[in-house]
Amino acid sequence: MSNYAILLDLERCLGCSACVVSCQAGNELDAEQHYISIREEIRGEGMALEGTFLHERCYHCADAACVAVCPTGALYKQDGLTALNVDACSGCGYCVEACPYNIPKLVNGRAAKCTGCTDLIAAGEEPYCVQTCPSQALMIGERDEMLARANCLIACDDSASRVSHVYGTDQYGGLGLLTVMRYPPESVGLPQNPAPIAQPIKLWQNVVQPASAGLSGLALAATAGAFIIARRNHRRELEEITQAPQNPETQPEAQVDPS
User: Fold this and answer.
1) Is the domain covering 4-188 a CATH 3.40.50.2300 domain?
2) Which of the four pLDDT bands, split at 50, 70 and 90, describes residue 161?
3) What is the mean pLDDT of the chain?
4) Which residues are paired to 6 by β-bridges?
C-alpha cells in the first residue's frame, strides 16, 4: 500500500491562487466554497520585513482526530491521505470540533475538506492543486521521497542566516502535508509540539466506534448522543474549574458526608 504525501515549499509559492481555483473547479465547489485558502504573512520590523504566502488546507494527519470521531466512516485514511465520502456523512459535526487545525467545515449539512484527490491518484494522476502550480511549489509522491526532498531543499538553502523547518515530520503521527518554511512554525500559528488528541476522542475511536459498527441506526444515534453529552459535561466541568474563585477564603465550605 502506498503512503503518499504532498510537499509544499513556501519559498516557491507565488501566491497566485492557481491551486485554489483548480481545486475549486475540479471538485465542482460552489463559488464561496474552497478546500484551500492562501493568505500573505508579513514578518519583521522596519527595513527587515519579510513576506510569505501561507496555505490553509487539510494536513492529512496520520493519527487523524477527524477519522477517530467520525461515526459513519465518511472520513477515512487512504494511501496516507485523509479521504472523505460525502455521501456517507451524517452531518454530526464531530470532525469540525475534533480537528486540531480547524480544517473541516459543515457545508449544506455535510463535512467539507480537502480529500487529497485520492480518486485522481488512484487513476495515476496528480491532485488538481499539484497539476496547476506554475512554480512547482507543490509536489506529491511517496512520503519518504517527499521528506527526503524537503530535507534536501533545506540543505541546499544558501542563506545561512535563515532557520528552515519541515513541518509535518512527526506531528500527529506524521502529516501527509509536508511544509518547507524558512521561519519557526510557531511564528505563523503552527504548533511545533501540538497537544495530543484528547482522551474522549481516543475512547470514541477505540471503544465506542467499533462497538457501534454493528448497531442499528437508532442504537448508533443513542450511542452518539451519549458521547456528545459526556463531551459537553466535560467542557462544563473545565469551565467551572477555570472560572472558580482563586481566593481560598471565598471558597464554599466542603460538605461532610453524613454516612
Assistant:
1) no
2) low
3) 82
4) 140, 177
